[in-house]
Each structure stands twice: as structure tokens, then as C-alpha cells.
Amino acid sequence: MQVRQLARARRPIDFRPALRFWAPRLVCCFLIGVPSVVRAQSPDLLRTYQNFETAKAAGRVQDALKYGNAALGLAEAGDRQSLVELLRNLGEFAAESAQDVPAQRYLERALALQELALGPHHPDLIVVLTDLADLELKAKRYAAAEALEQRILNIERMAYGDHHENVLATLGKLRDLYRATDNAPAVERIEAQMRQPAATNRGSLPAPGDIVEKNARYKQAQGFANVRVFYGTNRAPSGEVKPAVYYGRARGDLQYGYLDVTIPAIHKEAELETQPRWAEFVFDVSESRSRYVLLDRITPLARDDFIRALRQQMKDSPSKDVFIFVHGFNNTFEDAARRAAQLAYDLDFDGTPILYSWPSQGSATAYAVDEAAVGISGRKMAEFLENIVTQSGADRIHILAHSMGNRALIEALQTYLAKRAPDNRQHLFGQIVFTAPDVDRDYFMDAIEPLRGAADRVTLYASDNDYALRSSQLLHGAPRAGTAGDVIIRLAGLDSIDMSAVPADMLGHAYFAANAGAIFDIFRLLWRGDPPPQRCGMSGRKTSGPLAVWVFNADACKGDDLLEAGVMLKRFGDRARARVVANMAALTDPSQKQQWSLILKRLDGLLIPVAPPTGGAAK
User: Model-level pTM?
Assistant: First the structure.
């Protein structure tokens, strides 16, 4: 499940304490598909909003806007904040549909209502101000965009101080705006205000002989690296040729192909650098590739051509392993492709990444539609899975599913394994990882029982701070499999990991890919298949029975330096420490030496032999 981030280009501050109360209530409105302003009003308003969602899902933009305007008229009697919510929903939809004039009208009215209630300097105004600034940039009305970004900057400085990450992100947008208008003095002025040190990342670490980059799985060139991801999908082609919209929301027959995603040299582990809507109107292709994670190209293939291309890719790769990623609710094909590539890059995966994309609507208000779509996708995925297992020649096949995508994965595994003789179902897969599954807890426990022997290791990531799953529980009236706490699942042959301490997105749902510590844990799983006691930050927790629950200590495993140290150890083995020490000796920049010293410290910890687990796992 993906949630639209605050201003997209900015990393949001930690809202989790406030969300403990509000998130389950607010998100549940989206899961049902209707905002609170609609649910609280007349049947006419409910029916009108449902018509809006139906037209929106079908791509009938003008009909959707007509119903949206009718819903606004019916909602006038509601409370102000709910009306703002509806206006923002309509503004975002209109902007995404290239209906910029109505989008601006909706957003300006939402801003006026918020200003009336909150005043002109409240941080809650930032989301609407950012959307308005994006529209101005898209239209190349640079003076208006600058005024809005300066207003955002002033609000953020008052709220967070001069060096908060949101402030730095806004300064970066202003710098880009001034570059687009060839305003060199303004660029210099903004850069003088940006004091944050450069992030450590694989694409920019200096090293004698380029030791990191030369041995990287994905090589940086001209400011970006290219990650090729093979895919299967039961989305229907949209008829558009642009990669971002080549596959739409409609269901279709099983499709095959591969895609290319570019990862910028400035990429930071566990980040998904997203291009704002305005950027494609300001930057050329090469500039965008050097800044954002972009779906660059899609190559559809017939099934037999897909198998041949996949086998060739595996032959050319350092490893014959494959890694299949299944996305969750509220993902477009583009969203899923970018996430799969980011994971492969951050994991330094030596094999071939593969995506399975089911026809999610890519909308936070289309939960019911997504539930229906994922329900018919498992059997399609089973056919795709059979082709990978029987035709690819892979040494190991790892699978990771997120959120609602776990439903498709479970049905696909059930369907595929049912076709095989009982004595021919063992260890067909390497690692199977169920992350934050939005699946009924009781159903998951029954379904997972016959699946466990099919993999070398089966892992469940669960969290008690996953507000999206709390909302799903409210909607369904039953606990979800991805929930931790007292209801965390304990089964023999299943490693249940409590990830509640992992910082993540605003809803605490995307922690598996949005935190370097969590990615490092997946890295160890795919690389070495280590059991929990041999992985970073794992401690046993007492339970009422003999089965263990493992608690992940996010503080012990936080930081990009740990993931970098793990990558160095994987690439160089016993020579890793000597390579890092030699690299440090050749550096002159104190900040870069400090970055590498942190990596060395982590590497020394990884080189200490870990005693094998003994006896019971839980303390």
C-alpha cells in the first residue's frame, strides 16, 4: 500500500504519536472509498461520490469532474475540514488528469478555507500550497511558483527551524526553480543556505580505483544507474505508449516483458526519490534521471520471448537467483516498478529482479475495487509463477509481497503447489517474506500451514504501529496477519518478526522498504538465509507458548552505514576490511573519512563470528 507523502519531495516529520488516535479513523474512510464528509451526509451525496469514483476508475475524466462538482454542491452544509478534504481530493485528481484549471480552482478554495480556520502560517497549509506551486511550475509561471515556495519555506522555518529536512527540501526546489530561469545569483544564495552534508551512497562514495562502484551490481554512468526488472501482470495495456501509463487500471490477460528503471547517483538507501509533477516540464530527461527514480522504458514480450530474455539476463548476472516482488494496495504499475527497482538496487541483488503487478487502481479511495482485483489475480500469478519455476533455470527463487499483495501471493502458491505431487513441493523457493500482510489473521494461519515446506525459510514482518492495518481491521472487524502486539502470529516454521520499532512512512505501513535497517534484514535473508538470531538487532520475546516471536531493534540497525558495510562484505569477503581501510587512507575530506569510518565500524561488527542458535529461541 502506498500513501501520498507530504509534498512528495519532502520526507514527512514523525506524526505517529498524533496518528495513534486519528489515523485508523481517517484512513478507514479512504479504505471504504468515501471521505468522511460523504459518509456523514445524505444518501444523495454518497451516491454522487460513488459515481465520481466509478467514473474516475474508468478513466472518464469529464464525467468524474461533473460528479465531483455535484458532490461539492451537496457537501456545502458539512463541516469545513471535511469540505477541505473533498476539495483536495478533487484537486489532486484533476491535476493528475491534466485538468489544471479546475485543479487550481479546487486547491485555491481549499487553501482559503484552511487559512480562515488556521491562519496564514499553519504547517497544515503546506500540502495545498505545494500542490499549487507544482501547478504553477508545470505552467512555467515561475514568479507565482517562487512566491508559493517562499511561503512554504517561511512556514517550515517557523515550525521546524533552519536545518530541518523539510526546509532543506524546499530550498532544493527553489534552487531548481532558479536554475530553470537561469538566475545564477539566486542559485548561489540558496546553495549558501543549504548546509546539510552529502549522504553516503553507492553512487557517490569516492574511492581509490573506484572500489565501490567498479564492483557494484548496478553501475552508475552519466549520473544514474539502470535497473532492469522483468515483469508479469494481469493489467490490460492502456493503449498509451508513455511508460508511466503503458499499463492502466483495467484487468486483462497475463502479460510479460521487462522494464528499465533509472536510479540517480544521489540516491539514498531506503528512499524512493519521486519526481514531482512539475519537474517534467522544467528538467530535460538527463537531468530528471540524475535526480529521481524513474520508470524509463517498458518492453512487452510474448511468453516464449520473455523466457528467453530472462534466461539470458540470468546468464549475464553474477547470480542465477531471482527475486519476485508483489506490490500492495494503491499502486499503479509505475509505482510498483519503481519500488521493485529501488529494492533490487538497495539490496545490491546479484540476481534478476522480477515484478508481479496486479490491477490495483492506484488510488487511496479505491480499496473495495482493489480487493476485488486482487481476488481474481492469484490464479493469474500462479501461471506466471509456474513459468518462472519450470522455465527460468533459476538456482533460487525468492518472493516478497507487501500488504494486499500477500493475498495474490498466497492464492498463487496454493494454486501452483496443488498441481504438484506432495513429495515434489519441498524447497521450491528460497526465501518467502510476507510484509505487513493485509490478510485476515485466521485465514493466513490456515493458508500458510501447507506452504511452509515449499521454501527454505518463511518470514512474517508485522507491526503494532501499522495504522493502515489498524484501519483495515476496523473495516473488516477482524485482526490482520501483519499486526503485531498480542495477536502476532506464532507458527512452527514461520519466523515472526515484530517490526513495530521501525520508523516508516506516515501510516507505518511501508517500513519494509523505507528504512535502511529493514532493508538490511532482507539483504541478509536473500544473501545468506540467516535465521533471526544471526541477524542484526534480533532478540527473542517471551510468549505464552514454545514458539518464538523475534523483536527487531531498529536503533541497533539504523543507518546507511550498516547496509553499505554488508554490501562491502558480500562483494569482497575477507578482503572487505582491507579495501575500506585503504580507501580511508586515500581520502582527504574529513566528512568523507567520517562516513567511511562508520562503515568500517559496522564492518568490524559483521566480521565477528556469530554463535549458532541453541535451544529455545525466546528468552
Answer: 0.73
